[in-house]
Hints:
Layout: H1 5-8, H2 41-44, H3 50-87, H4 92-177
Amino acid sequence: xxxxxxxxxxxxxxxxxxxxxxxxxxxxxxxxxxxxxxxxxxxxxxxxxxxxxxxxxxxxxxxxxxxxxxxxxxxxxxxxxxxxxxxxxxxxxxxxxxxxxxxxxxxxxxxxxxxxxxxxxxxxxxxxxxxxxxxxxxxxxxxxxxxxxxxxxxxxxxxxxxxxxxxxxxxxxxxxxx
Length: 178
């Protein structure tokens, strides 16, 4: 099979020569027969080492049990509030007070978290203010040194330009006198 000359022309010239074609080789890629294991096989098997068993016990006692107890406590509190409210005739004032308490409690909790956060930030800034004066004065010294170097370099760069401008102005002034 001979490839078409328009695809294989090496140069941009119009003359065709037998040496103007590139050598082309053809290859066929065969697919591999590889069986890949499922990537979650390792995760589905339960490990048998002691640290895993200890972890499972800790999950039950330190996560699941406290969540269940908190949920039962919440349900019991709801039942207690409902019984105490409906037993007295179900007046609206009592329900309004209870609803207000339940609305205010999360707001107070969030406010307490923000207050603790602000106190911590204030404490850290105070500690940082005690540490930083030595380092900030050192940094300020480096900035002043850098500024002095920049000023010297810019004066050295601008000096020839000002000299040439002054020379041209003097020559113009001298020529105008004549």
